[in-house]
């Protein structure tokens, strides 16, 4: 039996400790200028993040939910419109659709990738469908060839929810560079995380970027001139400063995530009852989460046993969004999303972050092997 060690799900304290001198200097800069909202640190981050993704413009916002909301609002999506998205995501994806008064139309996922299944999209399209809003879930790029083809053929706006996929690639291009606009979250636990809330949109469309810059700041075209219904969704100076520092480390951190994903995949390859996530090809996966499927209904028991052995895990997500009480009025029912509903009972996210050690990854795998009796 493995000697017990503690393995956190992620270790932000250690991440901060490793780069603290850089972070402290950047934060000191904001404090000494007292530019706490937008300001030069946010602008510097925007100027670094847009080319990193391969886009012309980045607009820094207060979180990823707002990024989705502002994107849909700026594209004039509203009542009477339908937006197609995945059933298996964090609820913010569909909140944003609801905030603008449009209707979310949910599609089941591909069992191999957990991302929206392109084969099921066309039957969900109606004359009211305006947007295709895929999510690159767990850090893995969606099938952008198929999604791009469908969007083009049906004249749909493609808006990417890239909140979990900072740095992921698809056919040599960064995720976030495919849609008309793409939305990121910098929630602290993301691959690129702020010191609090943070988000951004990226786009090549200058007008769209300018409109979101206005919308985030009470829709002011000039001081005290509000040209439409506005919001306060501005990024804070300290978040811009922290994100600019952390962006310099993102590729290295993602490389370590890939190494650890490979290591888990090797060490757990033949464990009975554990289905491993498919390896992304050519950098298409940045392993925001490493999610296994546990056979039968044993997930909760395994999670409890792992906790007893010091291993923290997560469940992403235990209920498909269309089956949440908040969306009862849409009339979806159990059985409508067979793949997402199977995954919700069986998914288990293992500890994954670049600050873990190989020893910790090996320990997690060893304990799972032991518990699975192999
Ligand atoms: C897929 C997805 N979309 C949107 C969001 C919303 O981001 P935030 O928490 O920054 O509002 C998140 C993150 O939580 C997410 O994982």
Strand adjacency order, main sheet = 1-9-8-5-4-2-3
Beta strand count: 14
**The CATH homology group name of the largest domain:** Type I PLP-dependent aspartate aminotransferase-like (Major domain)
CATH class of the largest domain: Alpha Beta
Average pLDDT over all residues: 96
Largest sheet: 7 strands, mixed
Predict the CATH topology of the largest domain.
Aspartate Aminotransferase, domain 2
Q: What is the level-2 CATH architecture name of the largest domain?
A: 3-Layer(aba) Sandwich
Radius of gyration: 21 Å
Write the layout of secondary structure elements.
Layout lengths: L11 H7 L1 H14 L6 H14 L3 E5 L2 H11 L7 E5 L5 H8 L3 E5 L21 E5 L10 H10 L3 E5 L7 E2 L2 E2 L6 E5 L13 E5 L2 H10 L4 E3 L2 E2 L10 H11 L2 H18 L6 E2 L14 E5 L4 H10 L29 H9 E4 L7 H15 L2
Helix pairs in contact: 2-8, 3-8, 4-5, 9-12
Pyridoxal-5'-phosphate (PLP) binds next to helix 4 and helix 5.
Structure keywords:
374 residues, 7-stranded mixed beta sheet, 12 helices, 15% strand, binds pyridoxal-5'-phosphate, Aspartate Aminotransferase, domain 1, alpha/beta, 3-stranded antiparallel beta sheet, globular, 2 domains
What's the short version?
With 374 residues, the protein is an alpha/beta fold. The protein has helices at residues 12-18, 20-33, 40-53, 64-74, 92-99, 144-153, 206-215, 237-247, 250-267, 299-308, 338-346, 358-372, and strands spanning 57-61, 82-86, 103-107, 129-133, 157-161, 169-170, 173-174, 181-185, 199-203, 220-222, 225-226, 274-275, 290-294, 347-350.
């Amino acid at each position: 039996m493995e000697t017990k060690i503690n393995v956190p799900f992620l270790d932000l304290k250690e991440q901060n400790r490793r780069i603290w001198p850089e972070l402290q200097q950047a934060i000191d800069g904001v404090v000494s200028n007292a530019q706490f909202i937008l300001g030069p640190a946010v602008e510097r981050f925007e100027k670094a993040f847009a080319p990193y993704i391969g886009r012309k413009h980045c607009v820094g916002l207060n979180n990823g939910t707002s990024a989705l909301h502002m994107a849909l609002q700026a594209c004039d999506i509203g009542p009477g419109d339908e937006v197609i998205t995945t059933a298996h995501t964090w609820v913010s994806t569909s909140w944003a659709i609801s905030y603008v008064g449009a209707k979310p139309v949910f599609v089941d996922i591909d069992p191999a990738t957990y991302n929206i299944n392109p084969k099921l999209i066309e039957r969900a399209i109606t004359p009211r469908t305006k947007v295709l809003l895929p999510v690159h879930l767990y850090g893995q790029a969606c099938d952008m060839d198929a999604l791009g083809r469908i969007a083009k053929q049906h004249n749909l706006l493609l808006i990417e929810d890239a909140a979990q996929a900072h740095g992921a690639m698809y056919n040599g291009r960064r995720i976030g560079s495919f849609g008309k606009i793409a939305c990121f979250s910098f929630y602290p636990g993301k691959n690129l995380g702020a010191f609090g809330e943070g988000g951004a949109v990226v786009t090549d469309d200058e007008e769209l970027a300018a409109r979101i810059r206005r919308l985030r700041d009470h829709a002011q075209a000039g001081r005290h001139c509000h040209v439409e219904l506005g919001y306060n969704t501005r990024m804070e100076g300290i978040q811009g400063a922290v994100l600019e520092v952390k962006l310099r480390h993102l590729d290295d951190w993602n490389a370590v995530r890939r190494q650890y994903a490979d290591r888990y995949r090797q060490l757990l390859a033949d464990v009975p009852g554990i289905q491993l996530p498919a390896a992304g090809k050519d950098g298409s996966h940045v392993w925001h989460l490493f999610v296994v499927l546990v056979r039968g209904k044993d997930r909760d028991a395994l999670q409890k046993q792992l906790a007893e052995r010091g291993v923290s895990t997560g469940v992403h997500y235990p209920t498909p969004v269309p089956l949440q009480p908040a969306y009862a009025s849409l009339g979806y029912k159990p059985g409508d999303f067979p793949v997402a509903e199977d995954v919700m009972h069986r998914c288990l996210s293992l500890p994954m972050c670049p600050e873990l050690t190989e020893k910790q990854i090996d320990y997690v795998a060893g304990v799972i092997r032991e518990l699975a009796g192999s």
